[in-house]
Design a protein that fits this description.
The longest helix has 21 residues. 45% of the residues lie in helices and 13% in strands. The protein is of the alpha/beta class. The protein starts with 6 loop residues before the first strand and ends in a 22-residue tail after the last helix.
Length: 288
């Protein structure tokens, strides 16, 4: 089966939204990246240029000509109606807060044509938490990517009971066409497959450090040595970006809120947001 998807719009140009947009364009789709201001979109353009260089260094066959072609298929817009006017698929990658996502889908539903499929890249929310904010429950589902999409190329596809099987299959086909390994889920599961495994690890690592048991480098060392994994949990957190665990934990139970407050005080308030900012739990060479 083919996806019959040509035009893709990505809502949100943060770290992962930018990666989804660039990878889609690199795979040959016509892509519009939307965000709420032209100032934010200038940062997005810089991210796209940076991704082109990363692909040339890390992706087999990613010549300058191929990444230039990807950039030529990628446009930006701060006008939502214009951004989705001809979209076959909209992938939403806005902040991980249910109120923001629901507001986004209410506005999107008023602007997108009837043909458009909506997909959320939410890491922790279920599609059924959001679906009532859309005007097309049969054409709405989750499509979840891992960070550093060019290396960790999984795409988890998860619908609700209302999602059309034909739409589900088209999105699975699209994921494959854009260079991902599709991972279909048979029913809704918070965290999908990847985060159902990963989040408990990251939570346990943060508890060990926040409550004074160990240090980030020692936790990472023990995990790498004990399991043979290439990265420890704090290295992973730096790749994910510290805003993501903060946003999730800030809405959790009392212990998780304590961790969120600690992240804010010691890292976010100091501009230490993870690898993308040059520093998180570790310091990075931003010129590398």
């Amino acid at each position: 089966m083919t996806s019959n998807i040509t035009n893709v719009t990505v809502l949100g140009t943060g770290v992962l939204g930018s990666q989804i947009a660039f990878q889609s364009a690199y795979a040959g789709f016509t892509v519009t990246a939307y965000d709420i201001s032209d100032e934010i979109l200038e940062h997005a353009k810089a991210r796209f240029a940076g991704l082109a260089k990363v692909y040339q260094q890390q992706v087999d066959g990613a010549t300058e000509a191929r990444t230039d072609a990807a950039l030529s298929r990628l446009s930006v817009s701060s006008d939502l109606a214009a951004a989705v006017a001809d979209a076959d698929l909209v992938i939403e990658a806005v902040p991980e807060a249910v109120a923001i996502k629901r507001d986004t889908y209410q506005k999107l539903s008023a602007s997108a044509p009837a043909k458009t499929i909506f997909a959320t890249n939410s890491s922790t929310l279920l599609p059924s938490d959001i679906v009532s904010a859309t005007d097309r429950p049969d054409r709405f589902l989750a499509l979840h990517f891992a960070n550093e999409i060019w290396l960790h190329n999984t795409a988890e596809v998860m619908g609700t009971e209302q999602t059309s099987p034909e739409v589900f299959d088209r999105v699975v086909a699209y994921a494959k066409e854009m260079g991902m390994v599709p991972v279909p889920l048979h029913k809704e599961k918070s965290g999908y497959v990847l985060n159902s495994l990963l989040v408990p690890l990251l939570d346990a690592a943060l508890e060990l450090v926040v409550f004074g048991y160990s240090e980030p480098a020692d936790v990472d060392n023990v995990w790498r040595i004990g399991t043979g994994a290439p990265m420890g949990p704090f290295q992973i957190l730096d790749v994910v970006g510290l805003n993501t665990p903060y946003n999730i934990m800030a809405h959790g139970d009392e212990r998780k809120q304590q961790i969120a407050a600690w992240l804010k005080e010691h890292y976010l308030d100091q501009g230490k947001l993870g690898r993308a900012s040059g520093e998180g739990f570790y310091v990075y060479d931003k010129t590398a």
